Amino acid sequence: MDPLTVAGGIATFIFGVGAAREISTRQLSLKIQGQNDITEENCDKLCVQLRTRWNELCLARSDEAYMRVRWQQAALAAAGAAAAALALQLAAQAALASVFGGLIALFLAAAAVLAAALAVAAAGFTSAALDGFTRASTTANGAQAAFSAAVTQMSNTCGDEQAIACRDRFLVPCP
Predict the structure, then answer these.
(1) pTM
(2) What is the dihedral of CA 47, 53, 57, 63, to 10 degrees?
(3) Spatial contact of 33 and 60, defined as CB atoms under 8 Å apart
């Protein structure tokens, strides 16, 4: 069997483990985004709908921010692990130049292989986190559109004054 094929298979497996770890440890707040009832004409129910859409928008924005930070931190970790693997590999080569450095070079090379594996796993984690951020951003955009539609529906049905009064009762900045 070709050593490059084996190495590629191992790297793919390790990458997949990193991606699976990211997906299994996500903690998103917004599970299911609701839909506006476009046939509703009761102003009290429209106000409740508006509040629901606002809450969903806040949760979606929170998820987007969480995934952005998670993705950026994972990218930094992957870069750090790759840099460590390179530094260990260079140190192993330098140790081989020494008369007594053979054993040290062996340990450094083993550490470099381990750091490279960690870098590949971190890259998988980063890839999944980027995908999660993209999805969270899309969800936040959808929640913004649903909220805007609810505002428009309430304004058109109940008038701007009542829509503003409804929003003023609950519209606080998202945490």
Answers:
(1) 0.84
(2) 130
(3) yes
